[in-house]
C-alpha cells in the first residue's frame, strides 16, 4: 500500500510503500527522497479511516 510522510528534517513530502503483512504497527527507517536524512517512521493502521498514519522523526 502506498502512503506518504513529511520529512522531519526538511519538511518535504515523501511517498513510501507500507507492507500490510507486517502488522498494524510498524517502525522502520527510510531516507528522505529530497534531503537524504534518515527518518524513523512510526506507522499505524487506522481502521476507522482505512489508511496508514505515518509519524516521522529524525534518527
Labels describing this entry:
59 residues, two-stranded antiparallel ribbon, mainly beta
Could you describe the 3D structure shown?
The chain is built from no helices and five strands. With 59 residues, it is mainly beta. It has one domain (2-58). The strands form two sheets. Strands 3-4-5 form a three-stranded antiparallel sheet, with no helix packed on it. A two-stranded antiparallel ribbon has the order 1-2. The protein is elongated.
Helix/strand layout:
Layout: E1 2-6, E2 13-17, E3 25-31, E4 38-46, E5 51-58
Antiparallel strand pairs: 1-2, 3-4, 4-5
Summarize the main sheet: 3 strands, antiparallel
What order do the strands of the largest sheet run in, or round the barrel if closed? 3-4-5
Q: Give me the count of strands.
A: 5
Give average pLDDT, whole number: 94
Tally of distinct domains = 1
**Terminal Cα separation, in Å?**
24 Å
Poorly predicted runs:
none
Q: Rg to the nearest angstrom? A: 11 Å
Give the helix tally: 0
Class from helix and strand fractions: mainly beta
Order of helices and strands: EEEEE
Strand coverage percent? over 45%
Shape: elongated
Share of helix, binned: under 10%
Amino acid at each position: 500500500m502506498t502512503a506518504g510522510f513529511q520529512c522531519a528534517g526538511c519538511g518535504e513530502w515523501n511517498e513510501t510503500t507500507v507492507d500490510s503483512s507486517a502488522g498494524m504497527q510498524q517502525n522502520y527507517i527510510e531516507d528522505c527522497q529530497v534531503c537524504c536524512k534518515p527518518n524513523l517512521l512510526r506507522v499505524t493502521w487506522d481502521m476507522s479511516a482505512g489508511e496508514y498514519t505515518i509519524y516521522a522523526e529524525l534518527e
